[in-house]
Amino acid sequence: xxxxxxxxxxxxxxxxxxxxxxxxxxxxxxxxxxxxxxxxxxxxxxxxxxxxxxxxxxxxxxxxxxxxxxxxxxxxxxxxxxxxxxxxxxxxxxxxxxxxxxxxxxxxxxxxxxxxxxxxxxxxxxxxxxxxxxxxxxxxxxxxxxxxxxxxxxxxxxxxxxxxxxxxxxxxxxxxxxxxxxxxxxxxxxxxxxxxxxxxxxxxxxxxxxxxxxxxxxxxxxxxxxxxxxxxxxxxxxxxxxxxxxxxxxxxxxxx
Length: 256
Hints:
Blueprint: E1 8-11, H1 17-28, E2 33-38, H2 42-54, E3 58-63, H3 69-83, E4 88-91, H4 108-136, E5 139-144, H5 148-151, H6 157-177, E6 182-189, H7 195-201, H8 207-214, H9 223-234, E7 245-248
Parallel strand pairs: 1-2, 1-4, 2-3, 4-5, 5-6, 6-7
Helix pairs in contact: 1-2, 1-9, 3-4, 4-6
C-alpha cells in the first residue's frame, strides 16, 4: 500500500492539470503537507489547496517562477522553513507552445523561453532540493517529461528538445545522488486532457476522437492517470527504482 505518512511534498506547477492532481493524490495518500507552487493562477491554486486540506494534509501556497534561479531556490527554502522539512519534490512546471512551428518558423524567443522554463526550471529546483537531500541523507525527486522527449515531435522541436533534456538530466542525477540516498525518476506522459492541451485537442472537428482512436487503450489520459505513476515513483514501493522513465501514454509510444 502506498503511504506518505509524515512526508512533506513540493510540487511545481501545481495549480492545474497534472500538478494539481498529484497534489491532491499525495494528500489522500497520507502526506502531512503539500507545497503548491503556482505562477499566474492563484484562484486555481487556492482550489487545489482546499482539496489538499480536505484530504487531511496541510497546504502551503507558493507563488514563484521556477525559471528564475532566485525564486526557485526560495521555493525550496520556504517549503523547508515553513513546513519543517522536505521529502519529495515533483518538478512538473512546464510550458507547451501549442502553435505548430517548423524550424524555419521557430523564433529565438520561443525556443529560449521553452528551454528556460522546461529545462532551467527543473535544474534550479532539483539542485536546491538535492542540496537539502544531501544533508538529510534521503529524498525523492520525480521529474515530468513527455513522449515528445523520447521520439521527438515535428513542429514542436523546442518542446521535444526540452523534454529530452529532462530525461537525460534525470538519469544523470539518479547516478549522482543514489549514493547519497536520493532516488530520481521521471514520468513521461503522452497526450493528457488538461487546460494546457485542451485548445489543441479540440482545434479541429473530430481531432480529439482521432487522437483517442490512435492510442491502443483508446482514450486520452486524464491528469489523474499521470498522478498515479508520479505517486508510485515517489513511494516506498519504488524504493529500488531510480533513473527510470515511466511511460504513461496508453501504449502510443512503446519505448523500452
